[in-house]
Specification:
This protein is mainly alpha-helical and about 80 residues long. Helix content is about 15%, strand content about 0%. The chain is built from two helices and no strands.
Length: about 80
Amino acid sequence: MRPSSLDPLFAEATALKGVGPRIAPLLGRLVGRDSGARVVDLLFHLPSGVIDRRARPKIADLVAGEIATVEVVIDRHRPSPPG
């Protein structure tokens, strides 16, 4: 038997604020449980990687193959022709 203080961890994810009937099936699919995700399943679903997007070089300093965030200003826009 587990202590009753751990019971909230084994509750359905819908017990969490912001998780309703539309989000619950998506979380179940995320953690691989057809019966729905539990809070503990979400706690142990760790990211598999991370992308560091802090590099913000000038366009002239960009290096091919490296991930960078470039800030641009759009001075004009021509929409595509109709049809």
